[in-house]
Amino acid sequence: MKAMILAAGKGTRVRPLTYDLPKPMIPILGKPVMAYIVEHLAKCGVKDIMVNVSYLHEKIESYFGEGSRFGVRIGYSFEGYMDENGEVVPEALGSAGGMKKIQEFGRFFDDTTIVLCGDALIDLDIQAAVAEHKRKGAMASVITREVPWDKVSDYGVVVSDEDGRIIKFQEKPKREDALSNLASTGIYIFEPEAIDLIPSGEVFDIGSQLFPLMAEKGLPFYAQKQEFEWLDIGSVTDYWGVLQSLLTGDVPQLEVPGAQIREGVWVGLNTRIEWEGTTIEGPVYIGAGCHIEAGSTIIGPTWIGHGSHVCAGAEVVRSILFEYTRVLPGTELEEVIVCGDYSVDRKGNMVRLSDSEDAGLNNARDRRMARRTKDSEEDLEDINSPVGVLATAENVAMSYAP
Fold first, then answer.
1. Residue 367 binned pLDDT confidence (cut-offs 50, 70, 90)
2. Burial label, 375 (beta-carbon count in 10 A; 0-12, 13-18, 19+)
3. Distance between CA 50 and CA 354 in Å, rounded?
4. pTM, whole model, 2 decimals?
5. Confidence label for 383 from pLDDT (cuts 50, 70 and 90)
6. What pLDDT sits at residue 399?
7. Mean of the per-residue pLDDT values of the chain
8. How far apart, in whole angstroms, are the C-alpha atoms of residue 274 and residue 295?
9. 360 within 8 A of 327, measured Cβ to Cβ
10. Is residue 106 classed as helix, strand or coil in its secondary structure?
11. Sign of the alpha-carbon dihedral angle for 289, 294, 295, 301
């Protein structure tokens, strides 16, 4: 069996996470969400995988390569062009347009093929889904799940008859216009005949164009209701919720990495925790090479990426810090995601750190450290200051005991 992973989009709904990362590379428990998809496909016996790429394509290609370390073969279809200045310009063709380009180039879709969005954690029984698809003689099948009515505008929704045949497909309808709350999970099964319906050389979308066309024509197009884990990262709020669920153990098949040093506290290699006056309440993961100063507070569920530095007096509560984040003294973070130069709360409100003088955050790679006090902003200190020592392999030991 073959598969295609859709990975060409810009992921605008999860900005700022996708300013520097393509959406499939957003980290979940320390590795890209797309890595879980590739691993699951391999476990289900899928060995040949095509990936359409465009925005920040090189980050996907360099991480996954040709797939050998995952036990699969991976190929890429770049969507874009090189301009007159020799610059590579990404230009996505739409989810269906990307499939058509692959088919016209090398006839990859010469048999039943599963197509998946590259931004969700799943444990779908792919063999069972394909068997049902074939039993019904479907040209295309959509794996569906019921979602709350107030969430239907985030998804494509289907209206089907008693046998599951889709009679109408609505792409992200308004709540008042939605005819169903049965949502597409972004997992599809296609026969080659379905690809033939896609026009050549055009930007064309699966949900807003191909599926409504198939429903209108009355083609054998079916919805499947499968019971499986589906953690979708459609927005910043979704991402925050997924990490919270994983850290609290709501997804038992995924384990928090690192060594568990106390109840609910996991750490990576070469991390320094100064326990005097420090409060850490799990579930908390602290990545490799981090420095947690005495007198800081960390309340879970919280994920702290590798190379980060939580200074004395700082509080981090139910938050996600990407790698090399420094939380300055006295800073209070609650239910935020810190990603590079941006901080965003669970509702999507965003602050650019370089434009904010009082964010209380900076880059832990910087060998200088801004010290805040109640009364004034002190000058930058040299790394040799005892408070400003950065966690490195040379000067940090793993400190577990209080």
1. low
2. exposed
3. 38
4. 0.82
5. very low
6. 41
7. 84
8. 8
9. yes
10. helix
11. positive
Residue with tokens 């009364």: 375
Q: Which residues on neighbouring strands pair with residue 343, listed in sequence order?
A: 338, 351
333: how many CB neighbours lie within 10 A of its CB? 25
Do you find a cis peptide bond into 283, omega within 30 degrees of 0? Answer: yes
Amino acid at 338: V
- The Cα 367–Cα 381 span in angstroms is 9
**Pairwise CA distance, residues 353 & 209, whole Å:** 40
pLDDT digits (tens, 9 = 90+) for 287-321: 999 999 999 999 989 999 999 999 999 999 999 99
User: What is the distance between the alpha carbons of residues 178 and 181, in angstroms, rounded to a whole number?
Assistant: 7
Whether the pLDDT of residue 393 is over 70: the answer is no
Rounded Cα–Cα distance for residues 378 and 261 (Å)? 36
The pLDDT confidence band at residue 368, using thresholds 50, 70 and 90, is low
Contact between 244 and 318 (Cβ < 8 Å): yes
CB-based contact 398:267 (threshold 8 Å):
yes
Kindly state the DSSP code that residue 194 receives in the 8-state scheme: H
| Amino acid found at 331 | T
The CB density around residue 268, as the number of other CB atoms within 10 Å, is 20
Residue 324, both tokens: 């090399």
Query: In angstroms, rounded to a whole number, what is the distance separating the alpha carbons of residues 299 and 279?
Result: 8
Reported as a single tens digit per residue, the pLDDT across 222-246 is 999 888 888 888 778 888 888 888 8
Distances in whole angstroms, Cα of residue 258 to Cα of each of 182, 303, 305, 381: 38, 12, 12, 32
Long-range contacts of 208-211 (CB under 8 A, 24+ apart): 208/156, 208/171, 208/172, 209/94, 209/96, 210/96, 211/140, 211/142, 211/156, 211/166, 211/169, 211/171
In the chain, the amino acid numbered 346 is R
Q: Backbone phi, then psi, for 65, in 5-degree steps?
A: 55, -140
Return the half-sphere exposure (C-beta side, CA atoms, 13 A cut-off) of residue 3. Answer: 27
pLDDT tens profile 2-26: 999 999 988 787 787 788 888 999 8
**Across 163-174, average pLDDT:** 86
Where in 305-355 does DSSP place strands (E)? 309-310, 315-317, 320-321, 325-327, 332-334, 336-339, 342-345, 350-352
The one-letter amino acid code at 250 reads: D
Name the percent of the chain in helix, strand, coil, to the closest 5. 25, 30, 45
| SS3 (DSSP) at 59 | helix
Say if CB 14 and CB 235 are below 8 A apart. yes
